## 1
Amino acid sequence: MAVDPKTTCYDGTCAQSFQFYLQHSGEHAAILQSLHNILPGEFKRIGVDQSSLDVLGVGSGGGEVDVEILTLLQSTFPAVPITTDIVEGSTQLTDNFKALVAKTPNLQKIPFAWHLMSSENYETQVKAKGDMKKFDFIQMIQMLYYVDNLTDTITFYHSLLKNNGRLMIIVEAANSGWDILWKTYEKELAVDAITDYRSSAEVLACLKSLGLKYEEHATPNTFDITECFNPSNQTGKSLLNFMTAKNNFDESLTPEIRAGILDLLRNKCSTEKDGRVIFNSNLTCILVHA
């Protein structure tokens, strides 16, 4: 099956950069803490009187969060069969996800259908087949930055929900450090895999325009970016590469732009604590009703 090259930004060195970022930022831990507070009650509502439960992960990456979500769902309804479909464009991250499933005993009973393609290609394929599998729970975690058309994407995936289903979207929060950085320097940064940066502000505006009912949950997170201000520090260089979506921050941007970004990161996107620079990496979890 052909894979859209645009969606494989998380293969090779980019996948390594992404894994480095996850280890440094604590992002998945923040997401999981939030989900453990939100999802048990949601799952009880979604799964009432259901003879089976169908889950769709879109842009699921290495599956670290999906595995926890499925485990939570299983523990809520231990006797109900669960199916899972995964849409992910990165071969490397999909392989990581499969390896994680293989070593997670409670997931061995769950059949996985793997769709190695972009979210848009999955939409095209489903519409061409005319056989739209419906889902009780759909998750789109940190992936709406990569879609071509936000409204079309949300409209399509919302249409795949069963009557009592939920679509969960997690994106960077409005006015977070990410939002400030990428909107201030959108012309310089949004030129490759991400061409139209969106925080929760754009996603919520889209949901409102579509007349969809939703709940919004803050997911706070911060991480230390002090090393970014030491030009010889490799951790700082790697973080800057990931945060600006560049293979080499030092070589990809002019000295003036680099200086402006570093000033913005320190003074607008972060707070200082005990001499450390702490980046505001807040997220927003949005649960959209069917």
## 2
Amino acid sequence: MSLEVNWEQIASSEAIREQLVYWLNDQLKGVEVPKYLADIHVTSLSLGSKAPEITIRDIGKPFDDFYDIEEERAGTGEGDEDDGRVAPTSTPMKHQTSGSSDQTDASNPISPSTSHDHENDMQFVTEIKYDSDICVEVAAQLLMNYPAEKFISLPVRLKLSDLLIHTLAVVAYVNHRVFISLLCDISENEDTDNTESHSGNLRALSSKTASRIDVVKRLKVESELGSYEPDNGSILRSVGKIETFLVDTIRNLLVQEVGWPNWIEFQGL
């Protein structure tokens, strides 16, 4: 069953764009950058006009993991006040915390909840194909550290576009919160009508998640460098390294923050 999305309303929302830019910059603060790069940050974002193609493959009860985080917050007093904002917040799962005694191994992968029964809670397993015209602009400083550290600093502007994602995702609604997590990539020749999720066999699917998720299938990067000598080969090579670093960083952020067993959470819905 295909799902129609009012993409124009989403893409035109200034609040959503600001929240996404804030989230990306917040994630970039925690990324270790190479010595030739500094002050990397997202300056603007456009979601474009092309909506993702969304097909619902399964409808059922939310995973227990989404209730676990709710119960954990209730025990610590978090989330008692809601300001009504819809803000993406990255929430790693409890059993993925380093040193946790609740770690889950491959023999006990994800499964729908059997211990919770909330009237309005539900979960969709969806196929998402996003052949986008999204545009993200990034600014940074390219550092030349010879003959001295930060001997030359040049502004660099990069434009990320033509993002392609084809993935199986879970979208869960639990107590006025929406959780979104990417389960696995889908290859172009894969028969998604017969995928494990469609038959409800999410246990089999989840055990393969770690090896099947890459998220970004295509991402174009264009760069514009500040004043420089055209024959300076070392600078041009560094620009190429920045482009590669940025693509790898975006891919890793999506896998680490949105790939199961992690998720993006929207509050106040």
